[in-house]
Write a structure and sequence with these properties.
Layout (H helix, E strand, L loop, with lengths): L5 H58 L5 H12 L13 E4 L4 E4 L21 H10 L3 E8 L6 E10 L5 E8 L13
Antiparallel strand pairs: 1-2, 1-5, 3-4, 4-5
């Protein structure tokens, strides 16, 4: 076994101490970031519940005296179209009927009228079916993957939906979750 001189022992001890300090600082920073992310996610989820509930009740009230499906859809599209929220403007609304036909989507203007009953996300989940089921239960959260505005791939998201009172529609929004990388279709992560 090699014998170390006092200077070498001091140098090794300092290196061990510095490594432990930086590792500890890194772990601490990671825990703080994770707590902040969890706090931010909870705040975003709380926001989703509040804005969806407000929009659902408001639209239900507006639509109760409106006759004709086309007129109702036009009002819904006009209402949700310009609304954005969250600091990065990734918060927006979408509306479907319980058969999974898109009524309105604030970001993807090609979706209205399309039946997404068989749509699967990058992980194979029937997203709109699950959102519809949550809305039928009175509202709730569903985790899935969806194309993030301005991105080319799907990102993990938690959607919140509620029924629009007096209609056969539900309204929702979602919270994109922090993640290291997006999921390309077919990824098995």
């Amino acid at each position: 076994m090699k014998k170390f001189h006092a200077k070498e022992k001091t140098k090794i001890a300092l290196n061990v101490l510095l490594t432990a300090f930086f590792l500890g600082a890194f772990v601490f920073a990671a825990n703080v970031a994770q707590a902040r992310d969890k706090s931010n996610i909870q705040c975003a989820k709380d926001t989703a519940v509040a804005v969806v509930h407000t929009a659902a009740v408001g639209l239900g009230e507006i639509l109760k005296d409106v006759r004709g499906e086309k007129r109702r859809m036009d009002i819904i599209r006009s209402f949700i179209g310009p609304i954005r929220f969250y600091a990065d403007n990734t918060g927006y609304f979408y509306v479907y009927d319980y058969q999974c036909v898109n009524i309105a989507h604030a970001i993807d203007r090609k979706l209205p009228g399309k039946n997404l009953y068989n749509y699967r996300d990058a992980k194979g989940k029937f997203v709109i079916r699950e959102l519809s089921a949550a809305a039928k239960r009175g509202g709730g959260f569903v985790e899935y993957y969806w194309l993030k505005p301005g991105q080319r791939y799907e990102f993990r998201k938690i959607g919140y939906v509620e029924p629009i009172p007096g209609t056969n529609y539900f309204i929702g929004t979602g919270v994109y979750l922090p993640e290291w990388a997006p999921v390309k279709p077919g990824d098995k992560r």
